[in-house]
Amino acid sequence: MSKIASLSVAILLAACSIPTASLAAVPVPATGLLFGAQIGPGVPSPFLASAPQTVAPIYVKFGKNLRAIPGPGYPMFDLSCTAASAMISGADDAWIASFVKMLTDYGQPAFVRFCWEMNSPSKIRVVGGTPDDFKLAWMYLRAQLPANVSMIWAPSVGGTTSLPYFPGAANVDWIGFDNFDRYTVADPGGFARIVRNPCTIYGGMGVPMAITATGAYPVNQVAFFTDMAQVGTLCPAIKMLRIFDSHGSGVDSFVLTPDATALFQAFVAANAPTP
Q1: Which of 23, 27, 245, 264 could share a disulfide with 148, CB 3.0–4.6 Å?
Q2: Whole-model pTM?
Q3: Rounded distance, CA 267 to CA 102, Å?
């Protein structure tokens, strides 16, 4: 039996057992945005008690022990990549079943961001080497997740190199992208620049979009977070925004300066999501 045929049978069997009663996915805000942050160790949270984050990240390594679901906010499970060949062979079914049970028992809306930045060389090697390998893994997992889960497809940058990895608008709940302003000199308009290309490609597909990780080097943070106020005009499809408030790798650092923190807090308070 071919990979595609095997996958079709697996999806059909899995779909028959997906629990759906009383479960509802994350609602897309009618106005405002969902907010979150990946906050590094020792970095103060930019969120206040009066404006808490509405998306709480949880890193999950595929096949390893599951972590407790924190609160408040909708949990976003950043689920690492795994080999498509092992997944569709059924080798990972027991772990997937435990993951699905945890999400079903939780019973509240949640996100799963599986194999984010899948179009980067290091990630696609893990999955199997081709865009088709990634899409096979995506569809196999998607068919088994309960109805309270929204899957976010989130490539790096979101440009044309991500298109071969796109499973189709009918097979994603949200379209996300990761992109950063890494300019080390003054870069006015940096926020608009990182948003423009992915929104041109994916903004008209009728699927809510999310900036799943973004930030700027300190030299550009004031301009970056000031311009963030234009997001609704730049790309009306964007309904979620998560910042990276942490030290990156090497010389990278996206830790918010006090001025940027104040700008971001004001932006969050002014754009609270409404049903």
Answers
A1: 23
A2: 0.89
A3: 34
Residue recorded with tokens 């942050």: 37
pLDDT 10s digits, 75-122? 999 999 999 999 999 999 999 999 999 999 999 999 999 999 999 988
Can you tell me the distance from the alpha carbon of 241 to that of 264, in angstroms, rounded to the nearest whole number?
11
Residue 34, SS3? strand
57-94 burial: b if 16+ Cβ within 10 Å, else e: bbebebeeeeeeeeeebbbbbbbebbbbeebbeeebee
d(CA 47, CA 110): 20
State whether residue 198 is helix, strand or coil.
helix
H or E segment to which residue 98 belongs: helix 93-106
Terminal CA-CA length for the chain: 46
Beta strands in 180-230 (DSSP E): 209-214
Residue 71, SS3 per DSSP: coil
User: How many angstroms separate the Cα of 213 from the Cα of each of 15, 35, 92, 120, 242?
Assistant: 31, 11, 28, 15, 5
3-class SS at 99?
A: helix
- What are the two backbone dihedrals, phi and then psi, of residue 49, each rounded to the nearest 5 degrees? -60, -30
User: What token pair was written down for 159?
Assistant: 């440009």
Which of left, alpha, beta for 42 (phi over 0: left; psi -120 to 50: alpha)?
left
What the block records as the tokens of 223 is 């301009």
Percent of the chain past pLDDT 70, that is, above it, reads: 89
Coil, strand or helix at 170? helix
What are the tokens at 155? 């490539």
